[in-house]
């Protein structure tokens, strides 16, 4: 019996490696330094000095202002102050105000403390002024590891890829995430998982990206229920940050697909909450793409420990009593057609052809309506 079991395991391992192997690929690594440990915020002064920063401006949302001011106090005279005005989806007015504040303070870089809103604002500064950014994430979204920027104007959310917006340094301190609610922890973690899911079937993925994606999904899927059960569990929160780092790195090295295009359109047009939208939409896009992405689906089965990754993702979201439909987030039936048109106007690469019928079907399914 032991011999049979070992042979079966060896066959599974061989199948795993063969399924993830692509002999033709290009892989670009990410050029930043990463620090990860409890209490790592204490490394911020040394990190800014190593980058040659004398007057970085600390960016945050109003909700993270206390942490931002603590960071500024730690920097002492080597800071240009605090700008606690980051907002979701980086509105144009918010980007303009931050860039003006950097110039007025004579700042030579930024320290972005918080989730995607603060880090996105740091990217908006880097995009326009080419100044270095140190990212200190306090959620699990993983945007600190991507060259993707987004700014929302009156005509919706505009995004792009520019390696110049990548943070020069990222500091992961699980102690900074202990005040996150179970809902925010889970939603931002599933947002990160979405990065890995799309990297698994991206046209420019690589064997290394596939390995990072699978491990990142596995780490987050294991950590998020533990974080929900005990928000003070810094070991679980550290593992969640590890997973977010890997998943974000995947999006940093591979292009986005239909899922991200949908979420960008929904966020920019309807101002739906970013992480909740990702968590709600992801299972529906995964179900839509699964027939055209068997290797990605197999990797997710392994990572999630389930023969049904779609149901596993829904179960993961349910641990935080999160909304399960776009209708709960504020989308109406009247929004389906305008969002569909926006997605089709500039579709992203996707394993399954992007059609009006397919997009409408995903949106209606995610809304919880036929």
UniProtKB/TrEMBL annotation:
Residues 187-367 form the Fe-containing alcohol dehydrogenase-like C-terminal domain. InterPro entries: ADH_Fe/GldA, ADH_Fe_C, Alcohol_dehydrogenase_Fe, MAR. Residues 31-174 form the Alcohol dehydrogenase iron-type/glycerol dehydrogenase GldA domain. Belongs to the iron-containing alcohol dehydrogenase family. Residues 1-22 are annotated as: Disordered. The keyword Nucleus does not apply. Keywords: NAD, Oxidoreductase. GO terms for molecular function: alcohol dehydrogenase (NAD+) activity; maleylacetate reductase activity; metal ion binding. This is Maleylacetate reductase. It comes from Haloactinospora alba.
């Amino acid at each position: 019996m032991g011999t049979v079991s070992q042979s079966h395991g060896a066959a599974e391992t061989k199948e795993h490696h063969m399924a993830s192997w692509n002999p033709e690929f290009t892989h670009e690594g990410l050029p930043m330094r990463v620090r990860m440990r409890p209490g790592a915020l204490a490394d911020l002064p040394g990190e800014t000095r190593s980058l040659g920063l004398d007057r970085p401006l600390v960016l945050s949302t109003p909700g993270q202002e206390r942490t931002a001011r603590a960071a500024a106090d730690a920097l002492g005279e080597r800071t240009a102050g605090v700008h606690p005005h980051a907002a979701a989806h980086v509105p144009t007015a918010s980007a303009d105000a931050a860039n003006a504040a950097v110039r007025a303070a004579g700042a030579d870089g930024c320290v972005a403390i918080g989730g995607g809103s603060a880090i996105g604002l740091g990217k908006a500064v880097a995009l326009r002024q080419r100044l270095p950014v140190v990212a200190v994430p306090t959620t699990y979204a993983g945007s600190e590891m991507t060259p993707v920027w987004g700014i929302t104007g009156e005509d919706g959310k505009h995004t792009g890829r520019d390696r110049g917006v990548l943070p020069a340094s990222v500091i992961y301190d699980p102690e900074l995430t202990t005040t996150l609610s179970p809902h925010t922890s889970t939603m931002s973690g599933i947002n990160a998982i979405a990065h890995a899911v799309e990297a698994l079937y991206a046209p420019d993925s690589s064997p290394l990206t596939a390995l990072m994606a699978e491990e990142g999904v596995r780490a987050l899927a294991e950590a998020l229920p533990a974080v929900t059960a005990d928000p003070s569990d810094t070991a679980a929160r550290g593992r969640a940050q590890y997973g977010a780092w890997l998943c974000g790195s995947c999006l940093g090295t591979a292009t986005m697909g239909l899922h991200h295009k949908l979420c960008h359109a929904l966020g920019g047009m309807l101002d739906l909450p970013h992480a909740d939208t990702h968590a709600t939409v992801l299972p529906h896009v995964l179900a839509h793409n699964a027939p055209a992405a068997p290797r990605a689906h197999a990797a997710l089965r392994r990572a999630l420990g389930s023969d049904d990754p779609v149901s596993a993702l829904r179960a993961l979201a349910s641990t935080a009593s999160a909304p399960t439909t776009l209708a709960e987030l504020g989308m109406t039936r009247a929004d389906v057609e305008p969002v569909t048109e926006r997605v089709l106007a500039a579709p992203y690469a996707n394993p399954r052809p992007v059609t009006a019928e397919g997009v409408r079907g995903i949106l209606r399914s995610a809304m919880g309506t036929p």
